[in-house]
Amino acid sequence: MNELHRAVAGDAPQTTSAAAAVADPVSDLLADLIGEHRSIALVGVVDLTLSRLLSSRHCKTRITLTVTDLDVAPIATLMGSTRVDCIIFYNVLEALRQPSRVLDEARTVLNDSGAIVAITSNVSHGAIRLAQLESRLEQTEERRFDARGLDVLLLNAGYRIDRFERISHTFGSPSPLLPDVPDDVSADLRERIVRDPDFETLQFAFRATPLSDVARNRALARRLVAGSTEIVQAHSRINDLTGYAKKVETELARATQGRIAVDKRLKNALRLVNSAKSATVDAERVRKELSAISAAANALLRGYAEIEQRAGSLAEEALRRAHLLEEAGVAAARQQQEITASLSALQQMQDRVEQGRQFLEQAGRTIALQQYELGTSHVALQQALSERDASAIPMQVAIQHAEALERELEDAHARVSSLTTSQTELQATLLSEEEAHRDADRKYEDLAERFTSYVSTEIEAVCATIAVASRDTSMIRSGRIWRLRRFFRNLFGDSIQ
């Protein structure tokens, strides 16, 4: 039964409605254990449902006691001369300081046909066991019992159990009377818990009647005999186990000696294996180191080959630049020849200009002579006019002669103008030739300067490249790389390039 009533004092619902009268399985069980027409002494607080059931069965509660009362004074003192048919211990046995004493004293206040009825919690329920194993259960003064503990308690107090009932509650289901069960309980721990037959028993309910002293002593004697028998059987079992343990110890000693011998052999084997492993590790390490050295040597040799290839490339570059310099020299010689031809043509033009100047000077002299002759002709004309006037030469002859002289004068002026124009053109040509000569000189000087700078730069670059290649080659041939190359070639032959 998973749904239970609130069985702890103070948890009972305080209601007077009709719903409170609904039958509860636990209350029905307790009422059945108590019976009908019984006078009752109640220890603890029962719920309203059980009270109504007891009233319906004509049971009367003569006195109600608490745990505190029983811890302070004996129950006989508290009840005085009152005697009852039944004492109900309602969830209080686990709270009493001395439950065995209280139960023993309760025998004195029961009628001849009296009995005790009790309900108490089971300490063996799976939720409580799990909380104990996981140290989640709070430490209290309550003394919870399991089925065997209750049997011992009742027998020591002088009672015989007439009826013993278990109230179940599924392990893992929530209940206000139990601690919570985590979801992540391991399978091994759950298996350990469910081995107990009472792992789902929430509470025990029982009825017990008091024994007479004789019956009590007999029961204790029977229990003692049974216990003694169990002890004898346990001793016999212990003796058997002891003999078996001695045999096991003997076999264990032999096995230990054999194990020691095996351990020695195993240690020797392990030592040999470790030595072999160490040798293997050393060989592997040496092989790896040789591989690393070989790889490094190959890398160095590849670097040397790259340097040699670079030196060859630099030599080819130097040759190419030398060819370029040679071509540049040929081009410069060609330009020098062109400049020389230009200078020769310029010289010829200067000669022509000089001839023109000489021609102009001669033309000037001719013009001066003609001007002189014109002046002479003018004088002659004046004389002729004078003679005409004097000798009366015909006017017609004089005019013709004068016109002829004027035409000669105009021709002379035209020749002078033509010679002046030629002189101007020759001067302009001379100036143009001189300017071209100066431009040619400047181009030649600029070309010579650039050619010289280019040749110097290329020569310096080639020299620097050759110097670097020579230095790298010298360092390689004189350094550790070259010695390693010779070493590995001697070691491995020509397989290392």
Q: What would you say this structure looks like, in words?
A:
The chain is α/β, with parallel strands linked by helices and 497 residues long. It has 2 domains: 194 residues, Rossmann fold (3-Layer(aba) Sandwich), CATH 3.40.50; 183 residues, Orthogonal Bundle (Helix Hairpins). It is 69% helix and 10% strand. The protein is built from 11 helices and 6 strands. Helix 1 crosses helix 2 and helix 9 packs across helix 11. The longest helix is centred in the middle third of the chain and has 179 residues. The chain is elongated and about 220 Å long. The two termini are 92 Å apart. 14% of the residues are buried. The N terminus is likely disordered.
Quick summary of this structure?
69% of the residues lie in helices and 10% in strands. Strand 1, helix 2 (48-56) and strand 2 form a beta-alpha-beta unit.
SSE string: HEHEHHEHEHHEHEHHH
Query: Mean pLDDT, as a whole number?
Result: 79
The dominant shape is elongated
Helix/strand-derived class? alpha/beta
Gap between N and C termini, in Å? 92 Å
Which residues form runs of ≥5 with pLDDT under 50?
Answer: 1-21
CATH architecture of the largest domain: 3-Layer(aba) Sandwich
The CATH superfamily label of the largest domain reads Vaccinia Virus protein VP39
Specify the number of helices.
Answer: 11
* Quaternary structure of the protein: single chain
Lateral strand order in the biggest sheet: 2-1-3-4-6-5
Helix coverage percent: 55-70%
